[in-house]
Amino acid sequence: MNEKILIIGGSGRIGSSVATDLVNHTETDITITGRDAETGNKVAENLGNRVKFLALNLAEKEKLREAIKSSKIVIHCAGPFHYRDANVLKTCIEEGADYLDVSDHRSFTSKALEYKSAAEAAGITAIVNTGIFPGISNSMVRQGVEKLDKAEKIHLSYVVSGSGGAGITVMRTTFLGLQNPFVAWIDGKWQKLKPYSDRETVEFPAPYGRTGVYWYDMPETFTLPDTFPVQTVITKFGSVPDFYNYLTWWVAKTWPNSWIQNRNVIEFLANVSFKMTNFSDRFSGIGVAIRSLVTGEKDGKTVNYCSTLVHENTAISAGYGTGSIAELILDGKLKKPGVWAVEQALPTDLFEQTMVSRGVKIHEEWF
After folding, report:
1. Burial of 192 (0-12, 13-18, 19+ CB in 10 A)
2. Helix H or strand E encompassing 355
3. For residue 332, is pLDDT > 90?
4. Which residues fall within 8 angstroms of residue 110, CB to CB, at 6 or more apart?
5. How many Cβ atoms sit within 10 Å of the Cβ of residue 153?
6. Could you give the C-alpha distances from 24 to 40, 100, 164, 323, 327, in angstroms and in order?
7. What is the model's pLDDT at position 29?
8. Mean pLDDT of 111-115
């Protein structure tokens, strides 16, 4: 069995964080890809002698196929995923490689899930949305749902400090998420919502405290209702400093759709925001906080189970989420042919074990 791992987009902030996690927790050889050879070789050199760089553009389909053919697991980290098709996954199925990604957009997740039967027939385990949010956050929800006799409502909230250490890609992703209304599962039916609407103040652990969050289109908005028989799923996102929330809200609320749909406008906003966060990161940090609140019944009573997680670096924590699943697949502890959202594939006991091994603490509270 070939134990090599291929990380597409592995020279970027998130991809290199995944590679770092795999270097720390496995013995496998890793190939990272990217379009800039100078940057990629430097990243590979910093990660050690088990990591090699391969210059690769996703448009080079035959070169991509050859790289996938020699790999046990392929990890897709080349966002933003709004623009991506499912060709990497399709090629993995054809070449017999297991597949993970850090995708974070509804359209891409939907495209990937269409290959479920093909992956199952080929015996390929493919798990999407495996980073921090979606990713670790989804597993925190599963952890909560399993503690109740019956779950009725899921409320997921996230907050990121500045850039999150994820570079300009996270800025593009944020503004791309404003382009279209989306549907969410509320009170047992699908309802249309505007992105970055309905501000809510949520209590996060220190150092965040009470922080504003807004409706945001995430894949878990529709994968969680598909996974768990609940009546409502809420996914809200916010930034620190709060000024960035108001900036994003203002763009979503007042700018014409023709502007927000324009790639050049998105690129302008992403670059301006990236320059701003390069300054504010010095004061705000680049951390992340997740709060998962599951409401339901336990021993005949209505209860709330709340779990929270805080990490000082968003990109590194995303690496934990994806790297831990790759580790489980390599060790033969996780095999589930088909294409799955992470909460559908990763058992809670394995999730808890890998988080402990990475020093990640998830705090639990009943009320």
Report:
1. exposed
2. helix 348-357
3. yes
4. none
5. 16
6. 19, 18, 21, 10, 10
7. 96
8. 97
